Amino acid sequence: MKPIDLVGKEFFLFKQYVSRNDNLQLIFLVTLTFLIVTTLTQAEQQNQSSEYELYWHQWRGPTSNGIAPRSNNPPFEWSEQRNILWKLEIPGEGHASPIIWKDQIFILTSTPTEIENKEQPVENGNGDTDFFGIPLEQFKQAAQTGGRNRRGEAPNLNLKLAVICIDRTTGQIEWERVVRETQPHEGTHNTATWASYSPITDGDYLYANFGSFGLYCLDLSGNVQWEIDLGDMRTRNSFGEGGSATLYNNTLIVNWDHEGDSFIVAIDKETGDQLWRVDRDEPTSWSTPIVTDYTGLPQVIVNATNHISSYDLQSGEILWEASGMTTNVIPCPVFHSESGMAYFMSGFRGNALMAIQLANATGDITGTSSVVWQYNQDTPYVPSPLLYGDNLYFLKNRNGILSCLDAKTGSVHYGPERLEGIGDVYASPVGAGGYIFLPDRDGNVVVFKHGTELKVLAINQLNDGFSASPAIVGDQIYLRGHRYLYCIANMNN
Predict the structure, then answer these.
(1) pLDDT tens, position by position, 46-98
(2) Would you give the distance in Å from CA 192 to the centre of its chain?
(3) Does residue 69 contact residue 53 with C-beta atoms inside 8 Å?
(4) Closest CA to 314 of 268, 375, 361
(5) pTM, two decimal places
(6) Could you give the angle at the alpha carbon of 135 between the alpha carbons of 132 and 141, nearest 5°?
(7) How far apart are alpha carbons 48 and 123 in whole angstroms?
């Protein structure tokens, strides 16, 4: 029975009763209105949730766990000559993963260009020459890395920051919107870009986060609806920015952990107005928050160095905290909806994995029964984990050494196992159709079976490198490389 049919039946019965008592007419009207609004709202939310599962509307996919639940038969073998539906050279650069809604693909890019300056170099008093206030050797290093500087000074670059929409069927650019042209306030890691945040969509609007360069709301035709500036982020050692925003119903969540005054902020998605903002005692982290309403109270959960923290979505009030991560936290949490456990990892200069039961978590839960199990070896530095069914997959540091654990108990299915043919890994693994896909920065993508035993099916090589994580819609795989965007599909060739 459809929800609206239920409303109609209850309306008829209730009307028969109240028609014989005039004193109940007002109660009837109020109750009926409430019933209709509630039922239609629930139906709309269910339809939206079901529609989200069809596409890849956010970082880590529709469930935030890295899986495509509606994919049945994606390809697991390809090359430059096989199973490539189309291939597009991307203008600009970026590590933001592609976001897909219906027939549109959205990516963020930055195009850095050197600023011409005819000023002559000057002596700095040490016999060396400064260029625009930058020591000669430092300037040379920046030039060799495309103007990037790991250790602080802003490079002499102009940045063109853009949102690009691509037709999913043809692989052709549908529109490109430059949202800002500016100069960076600090350098970035020589492997990073100024477009590393993944956008997010609710199916009506696209929310494009460029961190220090602004947060933008666009309609799906590329028209900017609003924009806000949250300030300049100062990252550790100028490593760059990257933690994506999170969307839940009408609320956008942006976490801003850096070497300045850190905070987390909730923003009204329709207006860009700030709903609440809470200060955080955290150094730089790059982890994307997740939101779950498992306990009946929607909570925002953030992985970070000093504390894993949970906030009330409505008020920003801290619900619970736990310590135990390493520094430089990058992997985002994943959540097991059946058991009610969330998983947190970090792997820079140490190893940490914590499984936390949300049902009774309150206050400081460090060392309490809310921490169901821990596993402190071979955890990831850069890639986020993959939660696929009851299996928790993760890499050691940022290399191809894989472990697979039972998500409920923490028992080891296998690992650490080295995946042959895989080198430096920034991308996070994704799962679909019983397969798991893992790209590296040299253009290799290893495909292995989902299960309790490691079974590698293929190692696929393309003429590119991959720092962005794959996106999967239906049986098509979208790989955003350093130069190209690939659409991979079964072509029967």
Answers:
(1) 555 689 999 999 999 999 999 999 999 999 999 999 999 999 999 999 999 99
(2) 16
(3) yes
(4) 268
(5) 0.85
(6) 100
(7) 63
